[in-house]
Design a protein that fits this description.
273 residues, mainly alpha, globular
Length: 273
Amino acid sequence: MFTGRVRRSGKLRSVWHKRERKRRPQDLPTIDAVPPTTSLVTRSRYNLSEADWLCRSPDTMIQCLATLTSDRLLSFHMTTQAVERKLRLFYCACCRLRWAALPSDEARQTVEVIERHADGAANRDEWAAARRRILLFERAARRLGRVWLIPPEMRATADLTGLIVEAAKPHRSLQCVYGRAGWSVDATERIALLLEIFANPFHPIAVEPTHITGTVQALARTIYSERMFDLMPILADALMDAGCGTPQIIDHCRGPAAHTRGCWVLDLLLGKS
């Protein structure tokens, strides 16, 4: 490595930087090869393990997604656009857990528009109207940094407003700019939603194309569009009739966990992930 004294000359500095850019490590550890010894924030950018995802902390799990998405030296099976879509649906699902506590009908309508926008189903006019409302919500959410200024009876409402802003701007979460929004939803519920939507990003699961029959695809589309998640066990039966025996998929469809839009099994069957 170059250890000599570099004078304050632009030409010499540019030559030195060109030499250093070429000296990148050739064999970098994969995300599964690093032992889970320390936390995500105290390690180098190349060291990431499954323990960061299984840490039972929703904020650290989102940080894990941000690192997997942003670090080009880590091979991740999901694109940035796919992760942002799922984060939109995650924040919308958090809002739906507190649906009655949302401040107004306009807020609930905005969440519905954001859900449709995540799947490309919102038209231009309704998305423009939703964005104008989101700007007003964002101004109100900026006060979350000064919680002591908010009356106690209004703090949960202000936090839910912040969740709507996060749903509209998921790129802020991937840039680790997300603030304190979300504390009105229990950490256990947020962890369950992240597992429902992302499963385990360190062990992606695939399905054979021959198992996605017309019946399976039609049933999955109905469940997703009509929010008829009580039909998930029937979807598991249809998958088994088609020859799918992947235990993770069947157990997820038949499990007791609540399902939502962005469910990793439905996205897998509908080609949304």
